Amino acid sequence: MADAKSGGKAKTTPAVLMVPVTPDEVLAKIVGPAPLSRSEVTKKLWDYIKAKGLQDPKNKRMINADDALKAVFAGKAQVSMFEMTSLVNKHIKA
Question: CB of 38 within 8 A of CB of 24?
Fold first, then answer.
């Protein structure tokens, strides 16, 4: 159904987010080794963070890394959710 705010066009996911990417060995420990779209990688990463309780309770924008995430986060113990995106991108192959 069309939305008045979007000028009558239905909302679509940008194509770049739907192109399958392959996680490297480090990221595959969290999201699995199968090719996934970038949006699926992000969803699985957030599922992992929430399941392990790694979101900082005082500042929800910060992610506390366990051993698996430290490897993805270049050894950092804590990163912002915005920094996380750029660090994760280093672990995927288009």
Answer: no
